[in-house]
Specification:
The chain has 200 residues and is α+β, with helices and mostly antiparallel strands. It has a single domain, classed as Nuclear Transport Factor 2, Chain: A. 18% of the residues lie in helices and 40% in strands. Strands 1, 2, 3, 4, 5, 6, 7 and 8 form an eight-stranded mixed β-sheet that branches. Strands 9-10-11-12 form a four-stranded antiparallel β-sheet, with no helix packed on it.
């Protein structure tokens, strides 16, 4: 019985992990939750890329945490890598935006995020009651995504071990950044996300 309860407590999908992450922010504090759900080498943007654990090490939680939830979850065929995106809102409803987060399944079956980004919006993004989950096809021979050379700034990219989900982010010296995601559909690596954040 205890083992069943413990198994039920571990999020089985990246979308469930996002929900647990957001719930912990409300219960424990925003930055406390960010630290707990992030890998040791995770990255966020301020606006240049920073190591999450170092950046948030001594940061106090705000009095009220942001609220957010996954609207879309893109998952590799093998279920080991995912990218979630969806809206965020301040508790008073006076600011809106969206987030995009890369999640990796850990050796113990739990999920941790490795990159978190996003931006503010003039009006909130529409989102349903439950996330739309799209999984990479397990058919065919997935290809790698073509490399891009940027003139300046910092870039990182990755692909699931089965090559069915790929991502790339780039940050220019002025803080402008991009985040792109591709999902294998059985024939091609199809673009499914293209975040563009202006310089700050």
């Amino acid at each position: 019985m205890i083992l069943l309860l413990l198994a039920a407590a571990v999020p089985q999908t990246a979308a469930q992990a996002e929900k647990a992450f957001a719930g912990a922010a409300q219960a424990e504090g925003q930055w406390t939750s960010f630290r707990r759900f992030a890998t040791e080498d995770s990255v966020m943007f301020a606006p240049q890329p920073v190591k999450t654990q170092d950046f948030l090490k001594d940061r106090k939680d705000p009095p009220a945490a942001l609220m957010w939830w996954a609207a879309d979850s893109y998952v590799s065929c093998d279920g080991a890598l995912a990218v979630n995106t969806g809206p965020w809102i301040r508790p008073k409803g006076d600011a809106f935006g969206y987030f995009s987060t890369i999640w990796q399944r850990q050796g113990d079956g739990s999920w941790k995020w490795t990159m978190d980004g996003g931006d503010g919006l003039a009006t909130p993004r529409p989102a349903g009651d439950a996330p739309t989950i799209r999984r990479g096809s397990c058919k065919g021979s997935p290809s790698t995504v073509a490399a891009v050379r940027y003139r300046d700034g910092e870039t990182a990219e990755g692909q699931s071990e089965d090559r069915t989900l790929a991502w790339r982010w780039h940050v220019a010296p002025d803080g402008a950044r991009s985040f792109d995601v591709w999902l294998w559909d059985g024939r091609v690596m199809k673009p499914v996300m293209a975040d563009r954040i202006a310089a700050q």
